[in-house]
TrEMBL record:
Tagged with keyword Cytoplasm: yes
The protein's assembly and partners: Homodimer.
Keyword Translocase recorded: no
Binding site residues for substrate: R202, D320
Cited SUPFAM superfamilies: alpha/beta-Hydrolases
Intracellular or extracellular location(s): Cytoplasm
AB hydrolase-1 domain location: 41-323
Organism annotation: Pedobacter nyackensis
Pfam families: Abhydrolase_1 (PF00561)
Catalytic activity, reaction form: L-homoserine + acetyl-CoA = O-acetyl-L-homoserine + CoA
Name this protein carries in UniProt: Homoserine O-acetyltransferase
InterPro entries the UniProt entry points to: AB_hydrolase_1 (IPR000073), AB_hydrolase_fold (IPR029058), HAT_MetX-like (IPR008220)
Function in brief: Transfers an acetyl group from acetyl-CoA to L-homoserine, forming acetyl-L-homoserine.
Gene: metXA
Alphabetically ordered keywords of this record: Acyltransferase, Amino-acid biosynthesis, Cytoplasm, Methionine biosynthesis, Transferase
Length: 352
């Protein structure tokens, strides 16, 4: 079991934009123990609306009887900057005004999320990460971190993610933000502000997370005489309401903008030059029918990260497959890590 811990960074946290945050807080959870060699760290970067409890939302891949288990590994997952699950976010109190930030919160980027991770790693005394893993927004963070700190990450696992967020992905995010900002309560700047808009935003997002086939399988009507009250309609409403009960519109709004900011080539000559900086043993996994992060984006990563291995998975669930197809992921990732260990042993023997 693990409880949420909070790291308080007492210095000023400077964002990529040049703006600053005072009293940065980073919520995180750890599972297992750091071994004597300090070489069993598994660091998880979570996706858009997830939290630091990776054993809860990535069951089948993380857990006591899973590939990544606390008996063998020291697992760390930090709640990202801007998320309301414990880290500093728009709902946090602005120390200058004594009131919640809400829309006064400064915009931040994927690089800012990584900067916060790096501060936490230093605080925890982590100098080597055996496996850095993430999917979607989490994959964007993991990739950026592997470029920034090239020598501390041994194995990098990127799933359903990209080197730069696409115009298609940005358009989806902007459509969701349009829904949120169309809700006038968003500008009331109160804890439940924008929830009607957030419900619509989630409904839009689901269409990019899943597929035609997935809806045809799970939401197909069993009778032919309906003219309303369709299962697919109920499902969209349910999922929207479900998110509204556990998340807030302000965090969602800002995090979607952070995703849009993702471009590893920014201030690094080019995207390909940036990818060439990755030194970690890299596994890139794509979902064949991912609408939001098409598999061509993962193929691009594997082509331009030196020595990277690429695998595509079949899933009826589209983008969400990276969270659901844990049996297939266990097989692919397990084999990759075994091969990585064997290569390391052979290299040590050659240099001995």
């Amino acid at each position: 079991m693990s409880t949420i811990s909070t790291y308080n960074y007492n210095k000023t946290f400077k964002l990529e934009s040049g703006k600053k945050l005072r009293k940065l807080e980073i919520a995180y959870q750890t599972y297992g123990k750091l071994n004597a060699k300090k070489d069993n760290v598994i660091w998880v970067c979570h996706a858009l609306t997830a939290n630091s409890d990776v054993l809860d939302w990535w069951k089948g891949l993380f857990g006591n009887n899973s590939l990544f288990n606390p008996d063998e590994h020291f697992i760390i997952c930090a709640n990202v900057l801007g998320s309301h699950y414990g880290s500093t976010s728009p709902a946090s109190v602005n120390p200058v005004t004594g009131l919640p930030y809400y829309l006064a919160f400064p915009e931040f980027t994927i690089r800012d999320l990584v900067s916060a991770h790096r501060l936490l790693a230093t605080h925890l005394g982590i100098q080597n990460i055996k496996v850095l893993i993430g999917g979607s927004l989490g994959g964007q963070q993991a990739l950026e971190w592997a470029i920034t700190d090239q020598n501390i990450i041994e194995n990098l696992i990127l799933m359903a993610t990209n080197a730069v967020h696409s115009p298609w992905g940005i358009a989806f995010n902007e459509s969701q933000r349009l829904a949120i900002t169309a809700d006038r309560s968003f500008y009331a700047q109160k804890p439940d502000g924008g929830l009607k808009g957030l419900k619509v935003a989630r409904s839009i997002a689901l269409l990019s997370y899943r597929t035609y086939d997935a809806y045809s399988t799970t939401q197909l009507e069993s009778v032919n005489d309906k003219t309303g009250c369709f299962r697919a309609s109920s499902y969209q409403n349910y999922q929207g309401e479900k998110l509204c009960k556990r998340f807030n519109a302000y965090s969602y709004y800002y995090l979607s903008k952070a995703m849009d900011s993702h471009n590893v080539g920014r201030n690094r000559n080019s995207i390909t030059d940036a990818l060439a900086l990755v030194k970690a043993n890299t596994l890139v996994i794509g979902i064949e029918n991912d609408v939001l992060f098409p598999v061509c984006e993962q193929e691009f990563l594997s082509k331009h990260i030196q020595g990277a291995e690429f695998h595509s998975l079949k899933s009826a669930y589209g983008h969400d497959g990276f969270l659901i197809e844990t049996d297939a992921l266990t097989n692919v990732i397990g084999n990759f890590l075994k091969e990585s260990t064997n290569k390391k042993i052979i290299k040590l023997h050659k240099t001995a």
